[in-house]
């Protein structure tokens, strides 16, 4: 038997919104430690990794490891049927071919129950190597989303350059060039407004705007985002999912671009 109950059910909707443009279907791996999802996007350019810890749920039970293959578009449609303050519970039997979503209003006066068919997906579990990154940038997630959106008007790629002066985002195209520089903040009232740069060595890498903009769909999950960069290694864009876990996006840099 598998059961996971989340009083802040809205978090689950936000997780789905953060991945459904990149993935049409994926497997949720349920174990007693929590729920994980790892999949390459539809064009096999980026990798998405979601981790929801068992202790982050209000009730969590997983008697034996269970892999639930889901059509994420369908899952998103079902989650849209829940109200923003609903308590969401996912339930499945050990060898079930369906999963149930139960939505309860906080007053318990309304309970909805949806069943969704599961799919058999043959997905390889991709090992993510532990990497020491040359540069880790923490910044407000809304700021990162705005920069990606604004710069994508100028070109298809964004160059992210990290140095001891700060971090610079640049794009160039037919209409001209755009540069946004952020220095490390010295003092802020709220931690989530800070720009913090932890740099071992300067790094400059180029990434496709299209994917960065898709990653920023996770902005509602967390006020802060962290970008980890290392020469010739995929960028890691990470958002916390409330108190319950995190979502990471991996994107390989463009090699030998005409700009370099």
From TrEMBL:
Q: Where is the Proliferating cell nuclear antigen PCNA C-terminal domain?
A: 127-254
Q: Name one GO biological process term.
A: translesion synthesis
- Cellular compartments per GO CC: PCNA complex
Ordered alphabetically, the record's keywords are: DNA replication, DNA-binding, Nucleus
User: Which PROSITE patterns does the UniProt record give?
Assistant: PCNA_1 (PS01251), PCNA_2 (PS00293)
| Ranges for domain Proliferating cell nuclear antigen PCNA N-terminal | 1-124
Please tell me whether the keyword Nucleus is annotated for this protein: yes
**Coiled-coil annotated spans:** none
- GO MF annotation: an example: DNA binding
Task: Give the matching InterPro entries.
Answer: Pr_cel_nuc_antig, Pr_cel_nuc_antig_C, Pr_cel_nuc_antig_CS, Pr_cel_nuc_antig_N
Q: Where in the cell is it found?
A: Nucleus
The protein's predominant localisation is nucleus
Family, similarity comment:
Belongs to the PCNA family.
Q: This chain belongs to which protein, by name? A: Proliferating cell nuclear antigen-like
> Which species is listed as the source?
Homarus americanus
Lineage of producing organism: Eukaryota, Metazoa, Ecdysozoa, Arthropoda, Crustacea
What gene is behind this protein? Answer: PCNA-L
């Amino acid at each position: 038997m598998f059961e996971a109950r989340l009083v802040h059910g809205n978090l689950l909707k936000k997780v789905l919104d953060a991945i459904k443009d990149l993935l049409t279907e994926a497997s949720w791996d349920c174990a007693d430690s929590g729920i994980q999802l790892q999949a390459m996007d539809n064009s096999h350019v980026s990798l998405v990794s979601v981790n929801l810890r068992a202790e982050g749920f209000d009730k969590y039970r997983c008697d034996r490891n269970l892999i639930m293959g889901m059509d994420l578009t369908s899952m998103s449609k079902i989650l849209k049927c829940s109200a923003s303050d609903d308590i969401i519970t996912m339930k499945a039997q050990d060898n079930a071919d369906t999963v149930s979503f139960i939505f309860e209003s906080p007053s318990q006066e309304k309970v909805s129950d949806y069943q969704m068919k599961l799919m058999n997906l043959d997905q390889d579990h991709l090992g993510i190597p532990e990497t020491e990154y040359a540069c880790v940038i923490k910044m407000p997630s809304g700021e990162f989303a705005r920069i990606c959106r604004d710069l994508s008007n100028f070109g298809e790629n964004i160059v992210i350059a990290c140095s001891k002066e700060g971090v610079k985002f640049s794009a160039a195209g037919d209409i001209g060039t755009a540069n946004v520089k952020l220095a490390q903040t010295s003092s802020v009232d709220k931690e989530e407004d800070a720009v913090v740069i932890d740099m071992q060595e300067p790094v400059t890498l180029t990434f496709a705007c299209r994917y960065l903009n898709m990653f920023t769909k996770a902005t509602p999950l967390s006020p802060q985002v962290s970008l980890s960069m290392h020469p010739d290694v995929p960028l890691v864009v990470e958002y916390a999912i409330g108190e319950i876990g995190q979502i990471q996006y991996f994107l390989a840099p463009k090699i030998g671009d005409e700009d370099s």
